From TrEMBL:
It comes from Streptomyces chrestomyceticus JCM 4735. The lineage of its organism: Bacteria, Bacillati, Actinomycetota, Actinomycetes, Kitasatosporales. It comes from the Bacteria. SMART domains: SMI1_KNR4. This is Cell wall assembly protein. It holds the Pfam family SMI1_KNR4.
Amino acid sequence: MTHPTAFNWRPFLLRWSEEWADSLPDDATRSEEDEAARQARWLGFPPASKERIFAMEERLGRRMPPSYREFLKVSDGWQHAGGFVRLLAGTTDARWHNNESGLADMFEEYLDDDAGPAERRSADIWRRGLQLDVVSDITHVLLDPEDVDEDGEWAVYTWASWRAAPPERYANFAEFMRSMHQEFHGLRARPAAGEPEFVNDTTRELDALVEQARLEALRGDWERAEQALDEARKYGRPRAAGLGDQIRRLLGRTYMVSFEDLATDPQYAPELLPSLVTEHAARSYGDDSTLRFDLRGAGDDVVSLAYATLEQVRNGTYRYTATGPFGEAVERARELARWGDTDAAWRTLMDALPVWQPLGPDHLAPLGWVADPLLGPLLTPERGRELLSTPRGGQAGEAPVRAAGLDPDNLAWLADPDAHGDRTSYRFVLVEAVEPEGLPGRLADANEATLVAPMTAHEARQRLLHGQREFSSYDDRALMAVGRAGSRWSFAFDGAPASFDPQRFISPAAGASAGTRAVVVWSGLRTRHGQPFFHLSVAQDGTEQYAFTYADGETHRTGRIPRVLDPDRFFTSRQEATEAERPLLEALTDVFDARLPRHAITNGRLHTFTTHSWTRPPENGETYAVISMNWNAER
């Protein structure tokens, strides 16, 4: 915020005036006022005397706020305040608005019946405000005598109907004028044909600031860099928005990120377009015409690349690649993420980041990987800060603090409520000394013993339902995601299982344990439907070793259960059954030294397959229903 008591008005207004005068073509037609201002190199007026200021305050019945008073002592009004206020009031023209525009009535109509005092006071600005706009492009500028800070400064509010936005607030008049100077620069930063190049002391200072920010960003000082780039962006400086958007995207602040001209530059498009089209795919709802707005000015090759990348992003086939040692790390990280070890995948990328090289001087960090279906889910705001804090691109700096891992080294996290409260029941299979690719051969029917390409749990379920033609009340074929569950185990996990039927349930542990060990867990201790239940079975070399099922308040067991897993230690009463989940999962972690990757299961993409049924076929006298769907039938 501009502190009004520290604002030196005269050099600021002189610089603004000279920049405005130098930006005008010599042969353009101008009004007499503008030509006089150009010749004088001064957009203001003579200073207001103490007597004029006093008379103004007498007329208005209020002492003016400090920053506006100090401004008037230098110039009694102002021309071309920004791009849309032709004349700003001095001592003679400032007047109470008194709802002359009728805007108070309009804003009050938009208020809800339960609008609070602050909202109603905001709408009333059009009755109490001091109007400063004299000639403008339907742009209102009001000083608010009731929005006053400890220094006696009045807030400034501006509003233009054509902006389709609520009134914008500035803390004081000095801050408003500084913003109008920035708006003037932003409108001049890209001169039209025939206009002089817009170069002056301010632009040179800002461009040097942008270059320094670029180097600071590569050294890992992204916070200082972002602050400098934001300042330069307010003035419309080329490069500032494109560089700043790279920082914002890695911090997860995707709104209005477009990378400006960089995304359409063939030099940078391979890295920046994937991120851009990924956000478009997430919000476009099938309308791809809006992508053209972000691609304005792009050549045919870049446009073709953008739409080809968009198709790959939508069907999950986009694959990020990079050159050199960092590119090799990308391949290793993708393979780790493919099987759920997202923490190791992230560490692989970060360890190689110092040797990453940019595609050009305006490239601050690797970005295309955020669109990769396996690598993109690795990004969190904390990890984005770690990446941005890592020196790279040939620059030296301090090593960053590592972001904490996302995966607990246990199974007990399954007892935590998930963000949406949906995980009340789940089941999983652990198989020792078998790679994840081998699980379908142990748990699925022969004709379905293949893995589907990695996708989120929601995408996998939608895919299954879309292709399913028959639904049975007795068949329980689980859709399971697979990956590694530590150094010795692979897992198959189902986070949305069917209802548990203890009378017809058949554990897949024995069939999965040929030549090794297998563990099956099915928990419904927090289920919303029916009674809480929990099942554990352990098999080795095709034979079940021990098992227990807690359901309907009773425990059924087989085999010699290790004391540490004895259900009597956990299920002492029906009332305490829901409290047994975490201790049970902790005990299973200790006994089998296995874990499940939380981030990959809840936020990532994993291979999936459909198992054979977890229930036995119906016996004589048992009823069931089968529903067949013909999706292609005429309606």
